[in-house]
Design brief:
The chain has about 240 residues and is of the alpha/beta class. It has one domain: Alpha-Beta Complex (Spore Coat Polysaccharide Biosynthesis Protein SpsA, Chain A), CATH 3.90.550. It is built from 6 helices and 14 strands. Strands 1, 4, 5, 6, 8, 9, 10, 11, 12 and 13 form a 10-stranded mixed β-sheet that branches. Strands 2-3 form a two-stranded antiparallel sheet.
Length: about 240
């Protein structure tokens, strides 16, 4: 399995921490987010990566080179001319997704101990086009699933905005997306949009005819590193497990 790491975001929620550097190089307990992600995935046996860049993109390229590519194969998807959002990033990198094996998509600003082997087994057993890692946690937005964990919609609970795959339903389970999913072979080539677009909109459109499912992650921890406050919480956890 290969891994695509979305790392092109502006990191505006991190405030001054991304004023002069990209989000991907923001340090968490002394180590850049990007390095934490790559090293963890390396331990799981992944040796082929693609990282997309935009904000201070050259710094990301230089850091990867300074680390001798962490001893793995790393390609760059360059979005410095235009930031393509979460779906457009996959569309631009679709060549990387070609082949017979699934690709793990893992946001750079997520820290977790999810069991990737179990996730992959679940994905393969269900013959899914894409398997979205989700958790039961407090969030203003959520993905909606039927009893078989097939994607049926999306909701912004704060504004009561809903997007449905088909007809609106009253009976569903909702989970928060965890920033990790597996894209099966052909996923990128079958994206319904081009250019800049949200991957959520693509999932919803694809779910009308393809199998987009949720994987309920109940692993020990999951951290969003997208704000300074949340980053501090993650650092406290890393201090405890490394002390």
């Amino acid at each position: 399995m290969k891994a695509f790491i979305p790392a092109a975001g502006l990191g505006t929620r991190l405030g001054h921490l991304t004023k002069d550097q990209p989000k991907a190089l923001t340090r968490v307990y002394g180590t850049p987010m990007l390095e934490l992600t790559i090293e963890r995935l390396k331990k799981k046996g992944i040796t082929q990566f693609m990282v997309n860049i935009h904000h201070y993109g050259q710094q990301v390229v230089d850091y990867i080179q300074s680390k001798n590519k962490f001893g793995v194969d790393i390609e760059i998807s360059d979005e410095r001319d235009e930031l393509l959002d979460t779906g457009g990033a996959i569309w631009k990198a679709r060549r990387f997704f070609k082949g017979n094996d699934p690709v793990l998509v893992h946001n750079v600003d997520v820290l977790s101990d999810i069991n990737l082997k179990s996730l992959l087994i679940y994905h393969n057993e269900n013959s899914a086009t894409a398997t979205l890692c989700v958790r039961q946690r407090k969030s203003g937005r959520g993905l909606l699933f039927n009893q078989n964990m097939r994607l049926i919609g999306w909701a912004n609970f704060d504004t009561a905005e809903y997007k449905w795959v088909g007809e609106p339903l009253n009976n569903f389970d909702h989970f928060a997306y965890s920033g990790i999913y597996i894209a099966g072979p052909g996923f990128a080539e079958n994206l319904p949009y081009e250019g800049s677009f949200s991957i959520v909109d693509a999932w919803l459109a694809m779910a009308r005819s393809q199998k987009i499912i949720g994987y309920h992650d109940e692993s020990h921890y999951w951290f969003d590193l997208g704000t300074a406050e949340k980053l501090k919480i993650a650092e406290e956890h890393l201090k405890k497990i490394n002390s």
